[in-house]
Amino acid sequence: MSPRIHLPAGWVTFVFTDIEGSTRLAQLLGPDYRPVLWEHRRLLRRTIVATKGAELLTEGDSFFLAFADASAALTACLAAQRALTNHDWPTPDATPRVRMGLHTGWAEPRDGEYASAEVHRAARVAAAAHGGQVLCSAATVQHAAPLPSGASLLDLGLHRLRGFDDRERLFQLTAPGLERQFPRPRTADAVAHNLPTQVTSFVGRQAEWAELRRLVENNRLVTVVGAGGSGKTRLAVELAADLVESYPDGVWFVDLATVVEPGMVACAVAAGLGLRREPGRSMMDTLVEYAAARRMLVLLDTADAQLPAAAEVISQLLAGGVGVRVLATSRESFGLPGEVVWRIPPLSVDSPVTGAESDAVALLLDRATAARGGRRPDPAEWVDLRRVVRRLDGLPLAIELAAARLRVLSVGQLADRLDDVPCALDTGRDDPGPGLAMRHRTMQANLSWSYQQLGAGAARLLRWLAVFTGPVDLATVEWLLEDDQLDPLSVLVEKSMVLAEPDIGGSTYRMLDPIRAYAAGRLAAAGEEQAARNRHVAWSADAVRRLGSGPDGRPVTLSLYAFDPLAGELRTALRWCATGGSARSGLALVVGLDQWWRERGLAGKGRLWLSQLYDRSAETGERIPDAELAVGYHTHSLHAGADGDFVEELRFSQRAEAVARRTGDAGLLARVLSSRAAPLVDLGQLAQAEQVCREVIGWAQRQDVVDDALFAVLSLAELLWCRGALDEAAELLGAARPVEASRPAERGRRTVDMLLGLVALARGDLIAAHEHLSVSLRSRMAHGFHRRACDTLQAIAVRCAAGGDPLTAARLFGAAQARGAALGSVPGINGDYFARWQAQVHGTLGDVTFDRAYGEGTGLGIREAATVALGVEHPDLAADSTRFAAGVAPSAFTGPLEVASPPGAATSCPECAGNHPGRSRARLRSGEEAGQVGLRGNWRIGRQEGQVGEDAGPVTAGVQGVPARSIRWALEADALDGLDVE
Q: Which of the four pLDDT bands, split at 50, 70 and 90, describes residue 963?
């Protein structure tokens, strides 16, 4: 440098410049690099002279300049960048990209140079810049007034410059003609990451966080897959922030949501890593070379925006450097070798066993508190909070949007509006537009983006699946559209629009409620709703029919448990039938669920559906055949009786009779008339009820449809028991047993055994009562007749009281009445009988003891109460029993002998004249011999053993003093705990 150049003193602004990637540019251009380098120097010197800057040093492609005025220095840099950009270079690749850095400090020149730390600080500012970028320190900003025309300074925050302990606030010069978007500055920050700063707390997900961390630590590529709004990004960012110290070369976040061209994926990743395109070299090559020797974690967010291109970048990154790991979030997997796909579950909506709130409720509480200005929802609102999160299926985005709605709605109001989730959460929000960057502003935008990525087949399947409320299997999916749907279903699962839930019996598939609501809207918009929902109704009717049949198509004992998983689907089908579909189809569904409504305490709901279907039929003019209408009226009558509405019960019973008579079907009329006594009993007219029962039975016998009058027989037996005619009641019930056993819809209720148990209690025969009631309760619980099981529990409570166990009786009374009340039970004909026994138990125990035992019972569930009841000791096994005492005459026996058979054996049952395979029990009546009914095998009582064969004598032969009733016969195996004969 010439000593005649004047060097400024005092507040001096130092400027350093150099060409980014000059070595690569020189290799690319070869001999042509020198003209480019000279032209670059000429352009910079021209701007320096124009702004009176002093050139201290030029070496290769670098300049070191000093300015007495900070504003002039910024003006020189702006002019130089514009000159370089606008110059006509030989080729685009020959364009030099110059980075510039400025810093202002107090300095005095000596011997034509500056010996000051401010010079080194300026050099570090320049080193932090990228090609085409102008960075300056806060000191330069303080002295640079005014700024060049049209220019402004962008605050890039605090950064630690290499070699300096403190942090420097850096600013970027922006102006027309200059690039604006650059990677983060190349500084020596203590925290090597660019993870987005979260403004809300992270709630829940402890188990998922731990599982995902384990996967990332043990695998090089982990893809977090889930539906839009399921919280993939938030969980991945939270985990990545905790892993920063594990990666010396940083954790780098790259959002691909705004990348619109596949070729730009590598550029987006490079920008996240702070890299710029090098002349004459692909961005992918630059990426691979940079990553090769580094240990870092790359977090690729929304990778499904450019899935194939992202997969290619990931493959090359992982192949190029063993220290690179990738954590990606996407709605579908990449399908790359070594990829671990982890599907993020929705937030838990079930409270943990610790008693704390579920993650979903905790999130809604946190966000609702913020939305309401720090006012936490009242505990009275928590029930509705749980309703909301269940309705939203624990989807985090939906919960966040729901919390915002709580600024203007109560939690209950919001819960009531969630039938259409997108509408309820998005109403009043601005249209976010089609851009991916706005996809989390509304549920509609989020789901629309996913929907638009589907092909025609997958989109149609998604729409049609919206008619289902719960999970479905593959056969149901194919039944719905009558075609092979495996390929489109696979697409929906891969894109996280449908959840696949593997099971030992085969996978099932379901949609989260917010997705289902969106798909239902698309179904209506496509004009396919009528066809799809009618198809769903047909499927529902077929499902109900199949529940009454075994694999071979033959009728099986009705189990109400089979209806429970279908309840949501059937309600959805009924809603359509009552509003837009066929009333006749809806009526068939309600009737198909006949006993389920009452046994689950939903008789009122059943009546409401029936009323809506009557109205629908009248509105559309759809004709319902008389036989079907009669059954509907009959079902309505039974529901009304279960609800205690005895006037309506009688009215619909009469309607059912009138319509049934028009059909000329004697069996149908017998079934309708069989229930005519029920409203009379409910109204307290017992004599009239008994007369009606006898008339119906007599008429049915004359018409040869007596089996269809079973309900009248059972009602008559109950009336006879009520007035003490026990022998006649027992005879009726004995004749009714084979009829009940032959009818799949009735035999699971074991009403005959229930009533025989009551008869035995009235006779004081605790052994017979115990056995009949145990059989009835076991069968009712096994087949889901919970409301009827409550009656049996009360009867067993009476048996306990009569057997000297008032504490168990009190517990069972409490359980039966609490569970019965929950199921809407009303006292029946035996209500007074149970009440008298309960009062007796109360008097025996006293207030304090009774109340404690009764209260314990009210806390039992129906299954727990049944376990207590079935655990009551058999009277034969009681310690003080005299039934095994020597000298008791066998002739004292007047009841049946039970015989147990082992697995695979077929035992002849004299009570129903049928054979029962498997572990069952047959009975021998008094005076019968084993050989008479084909029984042979071994018997054992305590230590006494014996054999019986076809030619055996009386059943008590060889068992001195032991009543025949107490003998259990075990055929070829110890099978004394066999199942009851049905």
A: very low
Give the pLDDT score at 751.
Answer: 93
Is the four-CA dihedral 441, 442, 443, 447 of positive or negative sign? negative
Helix, strand or coil for residue 771?
A: helix
CA-closest candidate to residue 126, choices 48, 40, 17: 17
Answer yes or no: is pLDDT of 316 > 70. Answer: yes
CATH 3.40.50.720 describes domain 206-343: no
> Which of these, 543, 392, 572, lies nearest to 467 by C-alpha position?
572
Strand order of the sheet with strand 296-301?
A: 251-255, 296-301, 324-330, 221-225, 340-343
Task: Extract the tokens encoding 420.
Answer: 């259409």
Query: How many CB atoms neighbour CB 564 within 10 A?
Result: 12
Q: Cα-flanking dihedrals φ and ψ of residue 911, to 5°?
A: -75, -35
Contact 54, 8 (CB under 8 A): yes
Q: What is the C-alpha separation between 702 and 252, in angstroms, rounded?
A: 88
Q: pLDDT tens digits, residue range 675-722?
A: 888 888 888 888 999 999 999 999 999 999 989 999 999 999 999 999
Location of structure tokens 């002349």 = 279
Task: Kindly indicate the confidence band of residue 763, based on its pLDDT and cuts at 50, 70 and 90.
Answer: very high
Reduced to 3 states (helix: H, G, I; strand: E, B; else coil), residue 312 is helix
**DSSP for residue 110:** B
Q: Can you give the pLDDT at residue 443?
A: 66
CATH class of 10-174: alpha beta
Whose structure tokens read 């037996």? 717
**922 three-state secondary structure:** strand
* pLDDT at residue 880, rounded to an integer: 53
Side chain identity at 808, as an amino acid letter? T
* Rounded Cα gap, residues 331 and 477, in angstroms: 22
DSSP per-residue codes, 16-72: EEEETTHHHHHHHHGGGHHHHHHHHHHHHHHHHHHTT-EEEEEETTEEEEEES-HHH
If one compares 367 and 839, the residue with the highest pLDDT of the two is 839
Exposed (0-12), middle (13-18) or buried (19+): which is 487, by Cβ within 10 Å?
exposed
Q: Can you state the angle between helices 529-547 and 456-465, rounded to 10 degrees?
A: 60
Residues 159 and 168: beta-carbon distance below 8 Å:
yes
User: Percentage of residues in the chain with pLDDT exceeding 70?
Assistant: 84
Across 154-164, b (16+ Cβ under 10 Å) vs e yields eebeebbbeee
∠ at Cα 203 (197, 209), nearest 5°? 85
Q: How many Cα atoms sit within 13 Å of 148 on the Cβ side?
A: 19
